[in-house]
Specification:
By secondary structure, the protein is an alpha+beta fold. It has one domain: Cyclic Phosphodiesterase, Chain: A, CATH 3.90.1140. About 35% of the residues lie in helices and about 20% in strands. It is built from nine helices and eleven strands. The protein has helices spanning about 15-25, 45-50, 50-55, 75-85, 115-125, 135-140, 150-160, 180-195, 230-235; strands at about 1-5, 25, 30, 60-65, 90-95, 95-100, 105-110, 170, 200-205, 205-210, 220-225. Strands 4-1-10-11 form a four-stranded antiparallel sheet.
Length: about 240
C-alpha cells in the first residue's frame, strides 16, 4: 500500500467535477465517468490521452506516493496530518491556466503562490519520517540518468526529484502527447476547462490519497481541513 499527500478541491467544486469528467474517473468515489463530448477529440482519444493521470485522480502533488516506513502506521500518519493541518492557514490560488510541461498538459498557477510553495516544502520535511526508503526499482523508474544533479540529490534524500527549488505545482490533465497532436489537445482542454478557471481556487484542505495495491487506482482516503478548530468555527 502507498499513500500520498495531495491537494484536491472538494468533490463538488466546479474544477473537480470538470476534471473528473475529463479524466474519466472520480477519485473521491472511485467511479468511472463517461467521457465528455468535445469538438475535435472523440471519446476514445480522450481516454487514451488521459490514461496515465486517470489512475492517480485529479490532484496537485505535495508529498508524492510513498510506502510507510518501518515503525510507522496509517493511524500515526493520520494523527500527524490532522495536527499539521491545524497549523496551516487557508489561502487561495488566484488563477490557474493550462500549460504544457514537456510532453504533457496540466493546470498550473498563473503566477507563483508563495503559500503553496511553502506548504509543499513543509510537508516534504515534516512527513519524511513516514516514508520508507526507495527501492532500487523505484529509483530506476524515475530515470535518474535524465535528472539534474540537484534533482538526483533530491531523489535520494527526499524520495522525489522535484522538491524545494525544483518544485512546480501542477495538476496533471494528460499523459505524454505527440508533438503533432499537442495543438489539437490543447485547444480541447481550453474549451473544456476555461469556463471554470475564471475564479480563484481555495486551498482549504489537504487530501490523503491511497493506492491499495501496486497498480491500483489512487483514491481519496480522507480530507483534512486547514486551520485550527477555532479558525474553522469562525470561517
Amino acid at each position: 500500500m502507498r499513500y500520498a499527500i495531495y491537494f484536491a478541491p472538494p468533490l463538488n467544486d466546479p474544477v473537480s467535477r470538470v476534471a473528473a469528467n475529463w479524466l474519466g474517473r472520480n477519485a473521491f468515489t472511485d467511479e468511472m465517468v463517461e467521457a465528455p463530448a468535445i469538438t475535435g477529440l472523440n471519446s476514445a482519444e480522450i481516454a487514451f490521452y488521459t490514461a496515465a493521470p486517470r489512475r492517480y485522480g485529479f490532484h496537485g502533488t505535495l508529498k508524492p506516493p510513498f510506502r510507510l516506513a518501518e515503525g510507522t502506521s496509517e493511524e500515526g500518519l493520520l494523527q500527524a496530518l490532522m495536527r499539521f493541518t491545524g497549523t496551516v492557514q487557508t489561502f487561495e490560488i488566484p488563477s490557474m491556466e493550462i500549460s504544457r510541461l514537456g510532453p504533457f498538459f496540466a493546470l498550473v498557477p498563473s503566477e507563483p503562490v508563495p503559500d503553496l510553495i511553502d506548504l509543499a516544502a513543509r510537508i516534504t520535511r515534516e512527513f519524511d519520517s513516514f516514508r520508507a526508503p526507495l527501492s532500487e526499482a523505484e529509483i530506476e523508474r524515475r530515470n535518474p540518468q535524465n535528472l539534474t544533479p540537484a534533482q538526483l540529490a533530491n531523489l535520494h534524500r527526499w524520495g522525489y526529484p522535484y522538491v524545494f527549488d525544483e518544485f512546480r505545482f501542477h495538476m496533471t490533465l494528460t499523459g505524454p502527447i505527440d508533438a503533432d497532436e499537442q495543438a489539437r489537445v490543447e485547444q480541447a482542454l481550453h474549451t473544456f476547462f476555461d469556463p471554470v478557471l475564471s475564479e480563484p481556487i481555495e486551498v482549504r484542505n489537504l487530501a490523503l490519497f491511497v493506492e491499495e495495491e501496486n497498480g491500483a487506482p489512487f483514491h481519496v482516503h480522507s480530507l483534512h481541513p486547514l486551520g485550527s478548530v477555532e479558525q474553522l468555527r469562525s470561517a
